[in-house]
Specification:
mainly beta; five-stranded antiparallel sheet; 13 strands; globular; 28% strand
Amino acid sequence: MPFPNTVHYGWPAGFPGAWASQNPQRMVVPGQNGFCAGAGGVAVAAFAWVQADGTTVLNTPDAASPKAAPTGFVVRAQQGQATQYLQQNTMTIAQGFMVGLAQGGDVFALASTDATVGQAVYASTTNGTLQCAAGGSAPTGTVDTGWSVAQGGSAGLPIIITGPLAGARSTTATSSGTGN
């Protein structure tokens, strides 16, 4: 690592892929083999899809369902490995390594568009990167993630997105009379 030659006086509030709050954080529960990065690796702080085999994760949807919503958001969880000689950092999880996908909660992210509070978050189907727009108006080449902007910002600067809450439980009584 070279000697530091820059001083940053205004650090961002958070770093892409990191949890932004201690509000409920939900992870996608993998099968018995876990989730692992597919060919070419998986970008951290982007959306990703579990492929048809139920284990492989990529930043692109499975070919069989190209318009499917992403499975989750790739969070920073000490997963990236510096695999190149003298590489200082990486935001890519190498092929074959474990992947953690957030299904809900508040995380820092970067969007390629300006983001304002309440906008819907869309994922690019080519690389999982984020774009923000009004709900129901998905930009070309994206799919709705079900996430929304909690704290906005300019394109390329950290924002906070929030994932959907867990589905509400049914209040319909069961035959035992105990409810769900």
